[in-house]
Design a protein that fits this description.
The structure holds 2 protein chains of 2 kinds. Helices cover 50% and strands 10% of the residues of chain A. Chain A is an alpha/beta fold. Chain B has a two-stranded antiparallel sheet with strand order 1-2. Chain B has 11 helices and 2 strands, in the order βαααααααααααβ. The chains are: A alpha/beta, B mainly alpha. Chains A and B meet through helix 1, helix 3, helix 4, helix 6 and helix 10 of A and helix 6, helix 7, helix 8, helix 9 and helix 10 of B.
Chain lengths: 288, 207
Amino acid sequence: MSKTLAYYPGCSLHGTSGEFDASFRASARKLDLTLLEIPGWECCGNTAAHSINRLLATALPVNELAKVEQDMKLDAVAVPCAACFSRFKTGAHEVAESAETAADVRAVVGRPYDGGVSVQNLVDVYHDAVGLEELAAKVTKPFGGLKIACYYGCLLTRPPKVTLAEDPEYPTHMDAVVKAIGCEPVDWNYKTDCCGASLALTEQGIVDDLVARILNDAKACGADAVAVACPLCQVNLDGRQSEILRTQKDWQTIPVIFLSQLVGRAVGVSDKELGLKKHLVDVMAVMA
Amino acid sequence: MTTCTISPLLAENVGTGCGENAYKCYQCKRCTSGCPVAPYAEMHPAMIMRAVQLGQLDLVFDDKFIWLCTGCETCTTRCPQGIDIAAVMDELKIIARRDGRIPAGTPSAAMLKLNYDSFVRWGRMWEVELIARDVLKRPKSVTSWLSLGPKMMLKGKINPTIKRGDTLAMKRMVQTAESITRAKMVRQADAADAAPDASPAGAGGES
């Protein structure tokens, strides 16, 4: 049975991570999910709004949720970018927790939001909206035990009071998804450590340290590739490797692949549509 | 002799802004041990919390720590007292910007504002604009893009255009949010003036 979800791509999926948008849409089509992009969506406020104007940071995602609830009349929205997902969950949490915040947000948005929309990140969509059995049944090109380090980063699971993640220190739901498409998830130590996020724009040295530490552990634990569900994590973990190579000549590269690209590949989406050639570290060797 | 600026209202202002009670911190340092950027500044999350309790404005605002905080929420997740420490860091950034206390050598502070202005202007954040404006402000930053930028361009990773969001709706929301926030600040300042022995949060007193 076909399911319909509202879809909030966010700025990065229309910018540096076009392949995340394309692979998510293509995988959804193969999985009988209909995605309806929120018309005229605004930025969720990203990292900047909550450190400049707290009320705006809460109101921006709630405005999108009100559109989904009242204009689109849908009860769920897919927010594949982990940072946007976090802003949506935080916004919904804050208006539900505080009557004063809800009143202020209502004044900014211009209408109330009744809390009727479930916010789903990339892993939630495959794990819950599609379901593991349904996903496994749709696989036409299973990976033959490709070893994957599932990187959750910060905002898929933290803070747990907002995300309601069951095990924020060692989550396993992405591992279950990659297992369903024929990969072998590896146990490793840096699943939820920060990659440096937007410091990549201003403090590249710090980001290179954090990225090297994360990827070295993935390699040491036997991973062939790292799976991610956040555009900023992908651009940092993939892109910074070419910079790390300038100072560490013996650096062994490791591919960093969006979960939507892995799932899309397994359910029969073409490599071109998945944007597999857009990575700075080649992914084709492990995807063959 | 060195002097330090003290504001007895710092913890109170943090609390009014983000709803967190800094006095609940008992210095167990779980926040610091999990903090990815603690090794890169003089201060670390637990020191910031202590400085907030004591109203030590210089310790909080002269160091770059709060501007390195990525908002990864590890501290918030692990705090045994349930303090949303990442929210405290955000509130300190808001206070620092308002009171003109952003130290030199913190490009991340300017980047956050470029980012904010970009999505306010277009309804959506335009990544290419951020980098271009950053290079104009900080010409030396171009060296960090000379290597990675062209590689990303060749791979088609950089979309030079932007599809605008609903810019009118965005402007209306920004104006309303800013005016509500300003009105609250005025009420807060009036209440502080009415209280005995109070000094403004940012100005503080020499001791």
